User: What shape does this take?
Amino acid sequence: MRSILIAVFSLIAVSASTAARAETIVANVNGMVCAMCVTGIEKSFRKVQAVDAVKVDLETKKVTVRTKDGQSLDDATVTKTIINAGYAVTGISRSR
Amino acid sequence: MLMQENDASQRAVGFDTTVTPNMAVAFHVQEHTRGSNFTMLGPQLNFLVRRWNMPDGQGNIFAMTGAGTTIDRGDMRPAVWTGLLADYETRRIFFSYEARLMYAKDVEKSAWQRARVGVAPYLGRYEDINTWLMVQVDRYDEKHLSTHHISTLPATDVTPLVRLMYKTFMLEGGVSLRGKVMFNWIQQF
Assistant: This one.
């Protein structure tokens, strides 16, 4: 009985820790050509409540977004934010 | 976005703010100096008509239209203007074409066209000063509606220029083949 309780509590602890972790989202973006593009995308993501940090790389054409602990950002929101900034999304990948 | 343009034909200052992803509202004050000095000011709407996002570049077509007033030796007259801007840019090359039509009652009606070709001598990163070497061709066709306005400037002028961009600030400077200095800057907020 004691070992079952330990296993259950461990599982709950692991789940809580995973849920509280920040997520890193990488979007491949078309149309970025200059420093002002970088600023425009960064500014758009800073308005999104779940976003902790954003980095735009002109060389690799990637936008990397880190969420705040315990918060998530779905693909539709990422895509919409980039489209509204004036660019096109060609793919999204995620990691924790 | 705050901008200022100074060249042989005008001194202008403007403020643009984006209201939707496809539309911006602007307010421009422009002093025309092509022999007939008058000031034109008023609000302007800028529309993104079409955008092409490609892996290594972006193409755009913008339309703009505005209405306001001219101030000519203390007299105020209504004015309207409209224009079209098309551009294509990669991190290495730049092309643009812009055409504008302006009508200011009892003052002037004019057409202005500008084409630009540019090349970046190196690929700058976001943290770098990005440099562009450009050639600009301007063409003016104007009819003065007031007898005391006489254009003293040529209809066509070619201006080699340098554009420097650092993060949200852009600076352009050049001297035309007829010796006219141009100087522009834009600060994006």
In short: The two ends of chain A are 33 Å apart (CA to CA). The mean pLDDT of chain A is 85. The CA atoms of residues 81 and 91 of chain A lie 14 Å apart.
